[in-house]
Amino acid sequence: MTTPDTRNDLFQKYALSAPHSEIVEAASRIAPGKALDLGCGNGRNTLYLNQQGYELTAWDKNPQSIAKLNHIIGQESLDGISTDIKDLDTLRFNGEYQLVFSTVVMMFLQPETIPQMIADMQASTVKNGYNLIVAAMNTDDYPCTLPFPFTFKSGELSHYYRKWHILKYNEEVGELFKTDENGNRIKLRFATLLAQKAPTKD
Q1: Mean pLDDT for the chain?
Q2: pTM of the model
Q3: Beta strand pairing status for 185-196 and 165-179?
Q4: Which stretch of 68-72, 147-151, 177-181 has the lowest confidence by average pLDDT?
Q5: What's 8-53 look like in SS3?
Q6: Whole-number pLDDT of residue 127
């Protein structure tokens, strides 16, 4: 496991954004195991979790993003990361993961994709494993003015996990990297969920 200083050097070396704060928090409370990153982008969360001892599968539809992540893996001789180009809008998947996560990705998917994707996330999670989701919302107080194909409504994400142990759920205001016409970062509510799969009852 690398030290925090070494980890920061890696992110600076390849001009990567810091790992998502919810990933950092989740890693502090979930024992390392197999994890699936749905919509990994350039790999900031995958690389962080790998350095915490996780074995990662990382998927993204953008070939350039996967190529950059593969370049980092090769340059740094990293083990425990498997990557692939996958279109989440057409993907069905399964597996046995300790952690399945999607951060700031679902708003780029088609609405009809979401129910099946969440069902596959849940089915691919081992007993007592975890799902982590962070996704944009469209609410009356913070309407989404961007042309995202999908946004969650209040309470919608938590309803999908009503049979799980919800460890964290909120709909707090956050900022996108994208700015408005005045140069201010656009604010939206984000549905944030960390849930643990309940043991199957006999």
Answers
A1: 93
A2: 0.91
A3: antiparallel
A4: 177-181
A5: HHHHHHCCCCCCCHHHHHHHCCCCCCEEEEECCCCCHHHHHHHHCC
A6: 96
